[in-house]
Amino acid sequence: MATPLPKVNEIERKWYVVDAAGKTLGRLATQIALRLRGKHHATFTPHLDTGDFVVVVNASKVLLTGKKMENKIYYRHSGYLGGLKTKTAKEMITQKPEEVILLAVKRMLPKNILASHQLKKLKVYSGSEHPHQAQTPQQLEF
User: Fold this and answer.
1) Which residue among 34, 50, 58, 75 has the highest number of C-beta atoms inside a 10 angstrom radius?
2) Which has more confidence, 2 or 76?
3) CA atoms of 21 and 61, how far apart (whole Å)
4) Is the pLDDT assigned to residue 2 strictly greater than 90?
5) Is residue 134 in some structural domain?
6) Residues 70-87: pLDDT tens digits?
């Protein structure tokens, strides 16, 4: 008896909208990563991309618990000597709120090529408007 695998062409992908206003960053990112991977489907297969599209709005209103706004540091490196740049979470949320959610979700996905395909299905916007109304996304509550 062979295990039935979903065919890539037959996978139905739904669109979901998540409002990040007042939500904790880590708890929100875990639920988004779960939807992107497709682990909520009965046909989940680890080596196939069976996940759905997720649109996150109000990214600038996401919350961090404790003193993480001042103490959490995001690092990036230019590749040159002395090229390490640092920003606190508060600076990141004021300058690039989309990047905070994108990095949190990216770091929760598996570290392989499939993760880049899954991450492309995540759309993050700092305001409450998004250009994906034509896909008729469903509201997702956590």
Assistant:
1) 50
2) 76
3) 5
4) no
5) yes
6) 999 999 999 999 999 999
Flag whether 100 is in a domain. yes
Pairwise CA distance, residues 33 & 17, whole Å: 14
Question: Long-range CB contacts (< 8 A, 24+ apart) of 126-129?
Answer: 126/58, 126/59, 126/60, 126/97, 126/98, 127/57, 127/58, 127/60, 128/19, 128/57, 128/58, 129/57
Q: Residue 126's domain is classified under what CATH number?
A: 3.90.1180.10
In a domain, 124, yes or no: yes
Is residue 74 in a domain?
no
Taking the C-alpha atoms of residue 67 and residue 88, their distance in angstroms, rounded to an integer, is 11
Residue 66 clears pLDDT 90, i.e. is over it: yes
According to DSSP, the residues that pair with 85 across neighbouring strands are 76
SS3 of residue 123 by DSSP: strand
pTM as predicted? 0.93
